[in-house]
Amino acid sequence: MNKYRYLLVHDLRHAVRDPVLMVGFFGPIALLVVSRFGFPAAAEGLSRSSSFDLYAYSSFTGITLAITIPMLIGTMTGLLMLDERDEGLISYYAVTPFMRRGYMLYRLILPMGLAVSLSGIYLVFSGLLELQWGNLAVLILLALEAPCFTLFLAAFAANKVEGLALSKISGLFIAGTIVVYFVPGVWQLLGTWLPSYWIAKVYFGIEAASLIRVSIDFGIGLTYHLALLFMLVKVFEKRAD
């Protein structure tokens, strides 16, 4: 455990020195504050000025922001991996007691753990989402989303500059909630390749109390996330060699 404690301390020191990486820590907190206090204020203001009911979109807003949390965490840890690759640390870790497998395990568990804790806090305290036991299924998918974002950057970006550019493009991946909420009927199939699509499908299925549909969507979403994670690990390992 000491070797993983060393990596954790190294990550914390690195993140404190880099404002970009600090967004991964403070971004989810900012989203929680906006959801808890900013959304009700905006809803009341719109209701008085134009009779527009923003609360009708509270679930859509809540699940979209919830999906943003693992994206922020994954971006932070992905940029950390790019820094380590640029500095030759990944090759160094491969010949130490960490070994490459231990390093990869740590780099997958860290974003998952952060995503579980921060996303769980958001689901409970945002005030925009219904509290149901079924949200545990949503939390599982959110936890898998974080390492997928991490490895997406680490596998396809050549350096940290490219990683920052890709992180902006990867923000488009949260569009799955838009597809589920606004796109009608069979046209929703266009969004099935987006991981966030399955998270939104599960959450809205829970709201509709469609347990059979939720079970099917969760099964597909879980399989898709695990397959995507496996593929990204393989691509990263080839890139790191």
UniProtKB/TrEMBL annotation:
Domain of life of the organism encoding this protein: Bacteria
TM ranges: 20-39, 59-82, 103-125, 137-157, 169-190, 210-233
Keywords from UniProt, A to Z, are: Membrane, Transmembrane, Transmembrane helix
**Does Transmembrane helix count among this protein's keywords?**
yes
Identification of the protein by name: Fluoroquinolone transport system permease protein
